[in-house]
Amino acid sequence: MKKAVLLLLTGVCISLSSCGMTQQKIHTEQGRIGDDLSVTRQMAAKTIALSFYTEKELEELEQKADFPDVSETDWAYPYINGAVALGFLSGDEDGNFYPQKDLTLSQAQVLMDRLAPDFESRIALNDENQNMAVAYSLWVQLLEKALQERRGETDLSSYGISKQSQVLCKTEEDGGLFEKGKYEAAGLALRPYENTEITFLEKDGEILALLEVTDVTPTIENVYCNTKGKQCYMETGAGSIAYPYAGEAVSGICDITLENGIVTEVEQAADLGECTVKRVNGQEVYLAEQGLLQWADDFRVYDDTKEHTQNAKVSNLICGTDIARYYLKDGKVAGAVITKQPKIENIRVLLGGEEQPKVTLAAQNGFTLQSAEHKKVFGAGETAVLTPDLDWFSAGIVEVIPNDASTVEVRLADGRTHPYTGILELERRKNGISVVNTLPLETYLRGVVPHEMPVQFGKVALQAQAITARSYAYNQIWANSYCGYGAHLTDSVASQVYYGAETDELADAAVADTEGVYLTEDGEVVTTYFYSTSCGYGSDVKDVWSPDGTFSQQQASYLTGGVHGVSEKKPKTETEWLDFWQNWDIKGYDDSSPWYRWKVYFGAGQLSHITAETLQKEAKQNPNHITVLQPDGSWKAEVPQNLGKLKGISVVDRAEQGVIRVLQLEYENSSVQVKTEYCIRKVLSPNKADTADEIYLQRKDGTSLTETTTLPSAYFAVKEMKNDAGDLTGIALYGGGNGHGVGMSQYGAKGMAEMGKNAVEILQHYFPTCNVETKTQEMTQTP
């Protein structure tokens, strides 16, 4: 930013108010907000603190601000406390903060220096201007630039800050009701901007800064409206707004134009009625009755099944259901309104995990291929080979229906072949053919249970597995995570392993014995997880999956770690954990598993070579989970480069139940921290890659494995080997368990069953706050 620009935009305001920015006049003209307003110290504190913390983090932050003129009950206190904790703001020499005083140019330059030390542009200060007040608009520009310079970025997305342009429909005491929901706005006066479109910066539902009035007679597109009498009720997703309206009655998705708080024009989209959604993503939706349609640029989805209409996502349009009405405008879908709860009868499974370049079909009793324009019956033993270039796919989805309720053999591109019941849907996509199997939930489970748990584990363990798998699958229908493929889940370990009609008699009986039985909490089916083997302890979910790498997210009460049959005192120090995993005779529910204890040895040079590659790969795929030490002592998320030889490895943060949350690798040229159990397991891959010597992963049963791509678990301790000169020569990892450690251990379920426990007792051990109960499949969505 040019210095001259900084000075030209600087403004001075005389009158003070209790708001965060001093207001000089009602501002309803189109244009930038704040040229004629000054920014106060408390508002500067808000914009800084909210840039680095979420609202929840500010509420929980240790109190660092102690000023006589700032009460802990003031709206600005959490922000002032946050800015002080960050070291950006402090009090005056007399101990006061002076929250309502204007921020001066000299103070703004100090803040810029602290926010972005390497930022070369500076305010041209002199004796005449250094105590001048900073215009609100200028401060926002300075802050944006400083934050970008601080992280070398061109936007503020890494701070969780987004730029929004929305119509402010109604001001409220603590914020405003906008066209797409409510935003808090502590310290900001929003009333002058009612019924205009404004652009603002927001984070975590809080307006960080106002930028511009972009339209004083705005048209709100694709909004859900209904008229009653002379009122037009517009749904924001956080409440309904009534506007005066003198036109014809409308109901559905509309474009409405506002002028001085009155609806002057309404254009309603065409109602397509209730349609069955086959596939949906953010660009398009495939409706069984309409075919493939594009979404409009600013489409909206609403849920009208609750007491108050709420905003919804495309993933709420559950594939295979007709729960919503769709509205068409200019040939595109302008919006959808969910009007009813679905009946959960079938589950949709993506086969192969991705699009296939070729699909081969055959059936002992024959099958039928049909699309909107084609139909062909294949007899017993006949084969169909489908590739994306076939005209069959020109009319959309192709259905494969087995004759005489038999199975269809499906061979995917990788050569694996399995038989499937139900209906198969094939669709040409960008990268090939997607294959989705639609079938009843209970039938699906018969193809899951024997492939997720060895049938040798016995009836009771299989019953526990069936209930866990059913609860997981049910919630995956609601999560609709694979809706872009037209499925609810996939057939691999990414969801649950499913091999179609390849079933087992004992597993079938376990599914039948537990039909309709789920794990619930407060009457709602819970999302269950399971894994192969525990080391004797299980993990809290927050200690395992942390997208931002902070391990601060809230967790479900039933996904908490526990002790799984171990009677010894829980280790606390790294030495104690090493002793625990070096003792292969410790008893536990899982001690019959070969994965109950394991160890692996790396040469120092070998692990240096392996991690140089795996760190780069993981840093690109999971940027929040790999941080590199900077010259100033801070840690920055970036791709590690030119690390040199590995000099040491240590545990920085281990959860109470034993899983490693943060591991540190020391190299010649830098240090790297690896966060979350799965990333740690991938980085320390016991795969020799292109190094000379094999890496042997030794297990409790005496067997050894090579060429494994991940560590069995992140429950391990490190033992370094060094020579007389103190140089690292090798690293041994002693650990236990196989998998993430959240939820039910399958070997643990086997062990408990052998002790005489029944399926309910097993599940209540692993999901301690849950009930095991029978539910109908016509259940409402879990919040």
Account of the 3D structure:
The protein is an alpha+beta fold and 783 residues long. It has 15 helices and 46 strands. Strands 14, 15, 16, 17, 18, 19 and 20 form a 7-stranded mixed sheet that branches. A hairpin with a 2-residue loop joins strand 9 (219-228) and strand 10. Helix 9 (459-479) crosses helix 10. The chain starts with a helix and ends in a 9-residue tail after the last strand. The model is unreliable at 1-19 (pLDDT under 50).
Topology:
Elements: H1 3-8, E1 21-22, E2 31-32, E3 38-39, H2 41-52, H3 55-60, H4 77-86, H5 105-115, H6 136-151, E4 162-172, E5 175-178, E6 181-184, E7 197-203, E8 206-215, E9 219-228, E10 231-235, E11 240-244, E12 251-259, E13 262-268, E14 270-275, E15 277-280, E16 284-287, E17 291-303, E18 310-311, E19 324-329, E20 332-338, E21 346-350, E22 359-362, E23 367-370, E24 375-378, E25 383-386, E26 398-402, E27 408-411, E28 417-420, E29 423-429, E30 432-440, H7 441-446, H8 449-452, H9 459-479, E31 489-490, H10 505-513, E32 517-521, E33 524-525, E34 530-531, H11 574-582, E35 598-603, H12 604-621, E36 626-629, E37 635-637, E38 646-654, E39 660-667, E40 671-675, H13 677-683, E41 697-699, E42 704-705, E43 716-722, E44 728-735, E45 744-745, H14 746-754, H15 759-766, E46 771-774
Parallel strand pairs: 17-20, 21-31, 34-45
Antiparallel strand pairs: 1-3, 2-8, 4-5, 4-7, 5-6, 7-8, 9-10, 9-12, 10-11, 12-13, 14-19, 15-16, 16-17, 17-18, 19-20, 21-30, 22-25, 22-27, 23-24, 23-26, 26-29, 27-28, 29-30, 32-33, 32-46, 35-41, 35-44, 36-37, 36-40, 38-39, 39-40, 41-42, 43-44
